[in-house]
Each structure stands twice: as structure tokens, then as C-alpha cells.
Amino acid sequence: MSDQLFKKIELKVEGMSCTNCALGIKKSLEKEGFSNVSADFTTDSVRFELPDESRLALAVKRIEGLGYSVVFPKEDEREEKQGLSSIEKKFWFSLVFTVPLILAMFVPVPLLHNDLFQLALTLPVFAVGFWHFGRSAFNSLRSGVTNMDVLIFLGSTAAFVYSLVGTINGLGHDYMFYETSASIITIVLLGNMLEHRSVKKTTSAVDDLVRLQKNTARRITISGNGAGEVIEEVDASLVETGQKVLVNTGDKIPVDGEIYWGHGSIDEGMISGESLPVDKSVGDKVVGGTILVSGNLKIRTTATGKDTVLSQIIEMVRSAQQDKPRLQNLADRISAIFVPTVVALALITMGGWLLFSDIPFRDALMRGVAVLVIACPCALGLAIPTAVVVGLGRLAKNGILVKGGTSIDKFAGIETLVFDKTGTLTTGKFSVRKMKTFGFSDAQAASIVYSLEKHSAHPIAQALAAHFAGSTEISLASVNEEKGLGIKAVSEDGYTYQAGSYAIASDLTNDDDHNVYLLVNGKLAAWIDIEDTIKPGAAEAIHTLKEKG
After folding, report:
1. What pLDDT is stored for residue 236 in this prediction?
2. Do residues 13 and 39 lie in contact, with contact meaning Cβ atoms separated by under 8 Å?
3. Per-residue b/e over 276-312, b at no fewer than 16 CB within 10 Å?
4. Are strands 256-267 and 291-303 parallel, antiparallel or unpaired?
5. Residue 332 a catalytic site member
6. For 295-344, how does the pLDDT look when each residue is reduced to its tens digit (9 = 90+)?
7. Rounded to an integer, what distance in angstroms lies between the CA atom of residue 57 and that of residue 434?
8. Could you tell me the pTM of the whole model?
9. What confidence score (pLDDT) does residue 78 get?
10. Please, what is the end-to-end C-alpha distance for the chain in angstroms?
């Protein structure tokens, strides 16, 4: 075997409506020699691997030859489309004509029972069903893997044609089953619409992650005469590895990189789940999509595009939606033989009633149609993949990334659950737990801390300022925030105050177990411990988990 590298390709394919649609595409591409093919109707995606892109056109041709549409979205078309989707339009259109047909079963209005009036109402619905389900059924037969739309198409067409023959030959009310044909189409369209909405809502977790990437960057270049730096705002996707970018307070970091100038506090909650910003300075790595809470940085780009940490997370979520648990693989295998089996049973049912009973042909046909209708849409083929993708999407929306569908199978066997604390069991909102002073009263220390920290935007500083609000304020002549250290000020009467991390007090004490240290004229005046607030329901969640073993 050669060590040839294969490129992963993902295509957005419209028109897949069930497991067997996806299975048909998968088998067709595998016949052409494509490797690691996976197709998922819930996410409208088809994935495979190629040694190069020369055979991509063949893959597109094969997929479109089965009657599906391959869509290549442009960069500026990523925004969510407004208005009703195609499946929603088809459902509401069909419903308008189906309601009067159903009312005819209960309301004694002569017009509603007129066969020509019912034919006129049914024709538009049947046309929608013929195009939507008939096309899908035909394509599935071409691919060699029959899908659920074959049952829907056969059931609705049998009822319509039977009724039409009765109308043409004037056979009367006993041959009118127009409402059956229209109801089958409209009810299944309703199911498709609800499924479309639920999948769209939950798979938006990936879209939310993608939106984190959409950003601009302040790219740093050297002026033509080499006199100094020139800063230009460009799309982040145009920044290349090795180029430099400037990030100011409040900016989203546009690329993965390494700090070569400056220091600041970065909110990395997107990656780590930690609500407390991380102080970083020269030499530290930063991740694109995280937010610079305070400070100014110049970053040398180390990764762009698909090589960034955020892109890899997005890829992992997408892969998780493709990875099938054992139950879904079983459902796929059953679905492949399900449709031919149901069609055979419907024919046996109709033939059996004709041969072994005295009922007329129309009643035998309706019993055969009933078998087709009851069997579609197949809950096994639709429910399992929909449940998997909805579950993974909901988890991702709540910040839980699952490696793949097979991981879900293992959940039932979990015996030990390990939580990190910050942001998981806690809210990320800080409060003062304890303060100890040295040579000062608590009120004096509180006054100094409040006067200093009210000038900072750091989350810990804001929590301290809120806690000590109402304390006597000290008049300060100057205030200077030192990135990565804390805040320093000089009062109008000449006192020097400092509040910050252990770094400012390392020469004064060996006790580094506290969050904030306060110095007055270079001497340790106090230390403060802060704590995160436990989330409402955290204790109940842990208690429930313990109860379940």
C-alpha cells in the first residue's frame, strides 16, 4: 500500500429525506471506488475521501444523477435564510386543499361530496406529492436501495388512480378515496416538516461555532520604506501563517498564534469552559475565537483555516453527527429490506382478500393501501438517526462535545462521572469568601480595594468592586493597570497602593494560596480569597446521578 494522503471532502446535498436515500448515495459512490463514504440525511451532508480533487466532478455527477442537488455555498451566503423552507411551503400548500376533503367526512354539504369538486381539490396536492415523493422514490429505485418514499408514493397513487377511475366511469361515492390520497401526502409532509425543524434547530450548534470564526483581523505589515508598521483591517481568512496581527481590548482573537508583544487577560471559556480569564504574555499561545478581556497583544500567526483549534472542534462535532451508534447501523440494515417487504405484504394482503373473501376489489385495494400507509414513514429508519443528530446538537449547544455516536452507546455503562468545577458546577460569578488584613482594619482594606478595583474591567476586579461598594472612597492622584499583575495607584496624600496576583507579593510572603493581595507602600496589607457561585441545580444534579448509581 502506498502512503498516499487522502483529502476529506464534504458536500451539501439537498433532497435526501430518509436513511435509505443516504444509503443509496453511499452505495453509488462506493461502486465508483470512493473510500470512507458516509451520507447523512439529517445534516444534508455526504463525505468521502479522495487522493486529489480530480474525481470530485464524478462524485457530483453520480449524486445528481440519482436526482439530488449538490449545493456549493458561497462565503457571503452563510447567513441563515429567512422565510419558509421548501418543505414548509409544500406542506402549507397541500393543507389548504386537504382540509375541505377531510371535512367532507363529517360535514353534510353537497358540494364537498361532489366527485369533480374533490378531484379538483386533490389534483394540486397529488401534483406536489408526485413531484416530491415520486421523484425520490424513482431515484431510490435507480440507486438500488428503495426508500420510504416508495411506500408513500404507491399508497397515495393507488388511492388517487382508483378514485379517478371511479369518477370517469361514474361509479359513485363508494369509489371516492380522494381524501385518502391527499391525507397521506399532507400528513407525511407534516412529519417531514417537523423533522426538518427539529434537526435545523439542533444542528445549528455547528453553525454557532462557525460564526465564531467569522471575524476581521488587524494585520500588521511593514511600510514600503521600512519606516514603521502599517495596520490594515482585513478578513481573518486572508491572514496567512507567519503574519502578525494586533488585538486590542474587547476584540475576538482572529487566529491561532503566539504572543510576541504585550500581555493581557483572555476569556478562553469557549475552549476550556473556565469563566475566569487567563493572563498571558510574550511567548504564550492563543486560540482564535477567544476574547481579549483586557490588554493589547501582537500575535504571530501559527495556524489558519482548517488547522485552527476552533476548526478542529467544528470538524469533531460534524464527525460526531456522522458516527453511528450500533442501534442506528441495525436500523439502516433493516430499512434496506423493509420497503420491498412492505410492498410484498401489501400485494399479499390485497390478493388474499380478493381470493379468500367476498369483498369487492375496491375494499381489497384499500386494505392493501392501508398496509403501505401504516408502514410509512418508517419510525425505525427516521427516528433513530434523527434522535442521534438532535441529541448531539443539543449537547453541543450546551457546551458538551461528544466524540461520536458510538460514545452514546457507552453512556449506559458509565460508573464514574468526573466534573471540573468552574463554569460546570458553578456560574462563573465571583464573590468574596474571606479577607485577612495585616495592620489595617477590614473597613480600611475594603475602602482601598474598592477605590482601586472600580477602575478595572477585569472580572475579579468588578466582583471585588461590587462586593465592597459603599465603602469610603479614597482620592487617587493616578491609577495604572499593569497587565498580568494587577492595578497600582498613588493617593493624593502620597500613599502607594497595589492590588493583584501573588506576583506582586512574592517578595513579601511565601503564602501563595490566595487570589488577591493588597500592598500599601510596598508592604502586605491584606489578602482576599474569592469563590465561584454554585449553579442552582448543581447539588440536585449530583444527587440525581448518585441515586442512579
Report:
1. 80
2. yes
3. bbbbbeeeeebbbbbbbbbbebbbbbebbeeebbbbe
4. antiparallel
5. no
6. 889 999 998 777 777 777 777 766 665 556 666 566 556 666 777 888 89
7. 67
8. 0.53
9. 44
10. 48
Task: Bin 510: left if φ > 0, else alpha if -120 < ψ < 50, else beta.
Answer: alpha
Reported as a pLDDT band with limits 50, 70 and 90, residue 264 is confident
Residue pair 316/481 in contact by the 8 Å Cβ criterion: no
**CA-wise closest residue to 149 among 7, 22, 277, 284:** 22
d(CA 257, CA 302) in angstroms, rounded, equals 5
User: Please, is 82 exposed, middle or buried when counting C-beta atoms within 10 Å of its C-beta (0-12, 13-18, 19+)?
Assistant: exposed
Catalytic residue among 174, 235, 307, 420: 420
pLDDT for the residue 95: 94
The amino acid that residue 430 corresponds to is F
Phi, psi angle pair for 117, to nearest 5°: -65, -45
| pLDDT-derived band at 76, boundaries 50, 70, 90 | very low
Residues in contact with 161: Cβ distance below 8 Å, sequence separation at least 6, in sequence order: none
529 versus 140: the higher-pLDDT residue is: 529
- Residue 362 carries which side chain, given as an amino acid letter? R
C-alpha span between 497 and 544 (Å, rounded): 48
Average pLDDT in the 96-120 region? Answer: 88
> Which residues, including other chains, have CB under 8 Å from residue 227's CB and lie 6 or more apart?
none
Q: Which three cell numbers stand for residue 38?
A: 458516509
Determine how many CB atoms are found less than 10 A away from the CB of residue 462. Answer: 15
